[in-house]
TrEMBL record:
GO biological process: lipopolysaccharide metabolic process; regulation of lipid biosynthetic process
UniProt gene name: lapB
UniProt-recorded name of the protein: Lipopolysaccharide assembly protein B
Cited NCBIfam families: PRK11788.1-5
Binding site for Fe cation: C359, C362, C373, C376
Residue ranges occupied by any LapB rubredoxin metal binding domain in the UniProt entry: 357-384
Function of the molecule: Modulates cellular lipopolysaccharide (LPS) levels by regulating LpxC, which is involved in lipid A biosynthesis. May act by modulating the proteolytic activity of FtsH towards LpxC. May also coordinate assembly of proteins involved in LPS synthesis at the plasma membrane.
Cited InterPro entries: CellSynth/LPSAsmb/PSIAsmb (IPR051012), LapB (IPR030865), Rubredoxin_2 (IPR041166), TPR-like_helical_dom_sf (IPR011990), TPR_rpt (IPR019734)
UniProt xrefs under Pfam families: TPR_16 (PF13432), TPR_7 (PF13176), Zn_ribbon_LapB (PF18073)
Keywords noted in UniProt: Cell inner membrane, Cell membrane, Iron, Membrane, Metal-binding, Repeat, TPR repeat, Transmembrane, Transmembrane helix
Similarity field: Belongs to the LapB family.
GO molecular function per UniProt: iron ion binding
GO cellular component: cytoplasmic side of plasma membrane
Cellular localization per UniProt: Cell inner membrane
Length: 388
């Protein structure tokens, strides 16, 4: 079989095409390698950043900037770095310069705005930060991040109405459940109303808090307080008792208030029955201690003592022991009294470790109940230690 010149040409054509393609590809590869030089320096800088060596990172980034100052990512990373180092003014300058460039695309511009907003936040220029985050939320660019930062600002500024609006938007955008937080914002507003003796408005807010989160203990507590202040003890007791279903850990916060409510209504039997039944339902230190006092004033010290001893057998605890000593001290004579006082002193020391409040999130400990943890800034994470 012989090939004609024509046949040969046809055979060689694909090969020629292929080799041309190969040359072109090699050329392209060489070129892309060249254009990757810049980002490789950028990644090197990033590496320094990740290894907590910001000084070396700055060096690298500045070198890159000299090569090509149009590198947006580098600008952003550098600005971020300056902000983290606390050099906020430099960060602001970098981000402002970036935004001023008309060549920026939409994504780059919104990213730079988000960074600039955080610079302002760190510099304490809250109004400017707020404006930028609002703009981002409106144009739906980085909305979730912008809304989170807005929420942070409004909480810091105690602008609770705005915080409620933003939290609702954030819930829609992120799919996160913000209801417990929203309920606290309503409670904050209600507390302000309450201190200004505007009970009607406070009640409205607290109802909205319970609509947002029907487990909001704080709203029930305050609704009870308002009713008690107005002499509506039956209603007050109703609100406080609801805490039993909302979160039993907090019942100790209102046990005394509930008892006082019954006493104000001269309803000794109601008082006794409620604590007897709810103690049987839940147990718990606070309910038992209050019930011991109720028995003491109703049936005398001996009956109260008997109740506490039985309780301590089932659940040994320092609070019960303390109460037992307290009751015994009243009837004790001179020398026995001194011994008991000494013992009570020791128990009291022990008891302080089991009093107060602690955050389940960060471990913060405090003597009073904070709804917003000062340690980790979470709502609703602090609970009474006594019930643990
Ligand atoms: Zn905490």
């Amino acid at each position: 079989m012989f090939f004609s010149a024509n046949d040969l040409l046809w055979l060689l054509l694909p090969l020629a095409a292929a080799s041309g393609w190969l040359v072109a590809r090699l050329e392209q590869k060489r070129r892309t390698r060249q254009s990757f030089d810049l980002p490789s320096a950028y990644f090197k800088g990033l590496n320094f950043l990740l290894n907590e060596q910001p000084d070396k990172a700055i060096e690298v980034f500045i070198r890159v900037l000299e090569v090509n100052s149009d590198t947006v990512e580098t600008h952003l990373a550098l600005g971020n770095l300056f902000r983290r180092r606390g050099e906020v003014e430099r960060a602001i300058r970098i981000h402002q310069n970036l935004i001023a460039r008309p060549t920026l695309d939409r994504e780059q511009r919104s990213l730079a705005l988000l960074e600039l907003g955080q610079d302002y936040l760190k510099a304490g220029l809250l109004d400017r930060a707020e404006n930028l985050f609002q703009e981002l939320a409106e144009i739906r660019a980085h909305s979730e991040q912008a809304l989170k930062l807005l929420l942070h600002i409004y909480q810091q500024e105690k602008e609770w109405e705005k915080a409620i609006t933003v939290a609702r938007k954030l819930a829609r955008v992120s799919g996160r459940d913000m209801n417990s937080m929203i309920a606290h914002f309503y409670c904050e507003l209600a507390e302000l109303d309450y201190t200004h003796h505007n009970h009607a408005s406070a009640r409205e807010r607290l109802k909205l808090a319970l609509v947002a989160d029907d487990k909001c203990v704080r709203a029930s507590m305050l609704l009870g307080d308002i009713d008690a202040r107005e002499g509506n003890y039956r209603e007050a007791i109703g609100h406080w008792q609801r805490i039993e279903q909302q979160d039993i850990h907090y019942i100790g916060e209102v046990a005394e208030r509930i008892a006082e409510g019954f006493r104000r209504m001269d309803n000794d039997q109601g008082l006794y029955d409620y604590f007897r039944v709810s103690l049987r339902r839940h147990g718990g230190v606070s309910l038992a201690l209050t019930f011991a006092d109720i028995i003491n004033s109703r049936e005398g010290a001996e009956a109260a003592e008997k109740f506490i001893v039985e309780w301590l057998r089932r659940a040994p605890n320092v609070h019960g022991l303390h109460k037992l000593l307290e009751i015994n001290l009243v009837k004790a004579k001179d020398s026995a009294r001194n011994d008991l006082l000494m013992l009570k002193g020791i128990i009291e020391e022990l008891r302080t470790q089991h009093l107060g409040y602690a955050c389940g999130e960060c471990g913060f400990k405090g003597k009073s109940l904070h709804w917003l943890c000062p340690g980790c800034n979470h709502w609703n994470t602090i609970k009474p230690v006594r019930e643990e």
